[in-house]
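ok new one. same drill as before - structure tokens go in, u give me an amino acid for every spot. 190 of them this time. try not to just spam alanines like last time pls lmao
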């Protein structure tokens, strides 16, 4: 998974990108997707130095999704007590709504392909000690990261956390026909 950004991002976005690179051992930080053998990418786009957009995409054919990122809290800001092994595999937990709507089912598959650690990747550890949760509330997708406590299997939030407001789904990579456009999305300019 290639994780990169446009120019003009702020410090919080840089820290969020670094947090995702830390949590995803199968990620790369370089600019050219095809040269680095990446078939998935996360692209952060800053507009007007205050609005942050995230693109998730499959590299040569698509599909891709554009989100407005809201309520970003990085690992350094949260200062939570939890801790997980660097490079460990995350469990992915999805809200049941992801299986009821076709656009959410497509997003679920995109999230699985991007956030699931590859089993035999050289930087990954064969341990499962944290959970990425994707919950839908108020037509938005809430991302949280929890550590699994071994003694009693309880969960402790470790961050980062952010909220994704879906704008559009595209059939191609960063464009093309749009099979879904969110009717509840309102631009930050409005």
């Amino acid at each position: 998974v290639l994780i990169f950004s446009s120019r003009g991002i702020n410090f919080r976005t840089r820290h969020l990108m670094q947090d995702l690179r830390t949590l995803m051992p199968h990620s790369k930080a370089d600019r050219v997707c095809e040269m680095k053998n990446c078939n998935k990418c996360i692209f952060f786009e800053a507009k007007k130095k205050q609005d942050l957009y995230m693109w998730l995409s499959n590299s040569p054919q698509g599909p891709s999704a554009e989100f407005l990122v809201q309520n970003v809290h990085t690992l350094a800001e949260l200062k939570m007590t939890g801790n997980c092994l660097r490079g460990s595999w995350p469990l992915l937990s999805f809200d049941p709504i992801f299986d009821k709507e076709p656009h959410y089912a497509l997003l679920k598959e995109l999230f699985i392909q991007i956030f699931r650690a590859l089993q035999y990747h050289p930087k990954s550890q064969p341990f499962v000690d944290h959970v990425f949760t994707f919950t839908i509330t108020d037509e938005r997708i809430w991302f949280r990261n929890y550590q699994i406590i071994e003694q009693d299997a309880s969960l402790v939030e470790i961050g980062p956390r952010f909220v994704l407001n879906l704008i559009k789904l595209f059939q191609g990579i960063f464009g093309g026909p749009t099979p879904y456009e969110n009717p509840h999305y309102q631009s930050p300019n409005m």
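The chain has a mean pLDDT of 84. and btw The helical segments are 11-23, 75-78, 102-115.
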